[in-house]
Amino acid sequence: MTDLTHLRADGSAHMVDVTDKAVTRREARAQAVLVTTAEVVSRIADGSLPKGEALGTARLAGIMGAKQTSTLIPLCHPLPLTKLSVDLEPAGDRVTITATAVTNGVTGVEMEALTAANIAALTLYDMIKAVDNRAVITDVKVLAKSGGKSGDWSIE
């Protein structure tokens, strides 16, 4: 268990000590996809849902959610986000949500990007459940990250 950074020698969980890590620019991009029907996606895009304008509401929810990541996920460090964007792309029977988080810090922002994408997707689901309670949130993943010791990578 000694190679697992979030575990102490006795096996109990703890927050990793990042005190001596270098401050670098760190960026992560993550996505979530809400799959519903083409008719519902059209209503999302034109703002005609019973709960109102969903895209802007989901964007703001994602941004707000990312700022709460360390209170939602027990071992995450609180990070000063310098940029957080949430883009929602309705097309066909789905809305693809892409969140980008940036900081200058000592640990990565993957969890913030994932939280933003997920909270935006959950908000969309909440906004459409009156017209489609069988929608699915899928394809949640980190798309790319840069900065820090492990270097840059992308699956795009």
Quick structural summary:
The protein contains four helices and five strands. By secondary structure, the protein is an alpha+beta fold.
Q: Provide the β-strand percentage band.
A: 25-35%
Distance separating the two termini: 33 Å
The dominant shape is elongated
**Can you list the strand order of the major beta sheet?**
2-3-1-4-5
Question: What is the radius of gyration?
Answer: 17 Å
> What is the second-level CATH architecture?
2-Layer Sandwich
Low-confidence stretches: none
Walk me through this protein's architecture.
This protein has 156 residues and is of the alpha+beta class. The protein has a single domain, classed as Alpha-Beta Plaits, CATH 3.30.70.640. 29% of the residues lie in helices and 31% in strands. The chain is built from 4 helices and 5 strands, in the order E-H-H-H-E-E-H-E-E. The protein has a 5-stranded antiparallel sheet. A hairpin with a 6-residue loop joins strand 4 and strand 5. Helix 2 runs antiparallel to helix 4. The relative contact order is 0.26. The mean pLDDT is 93.
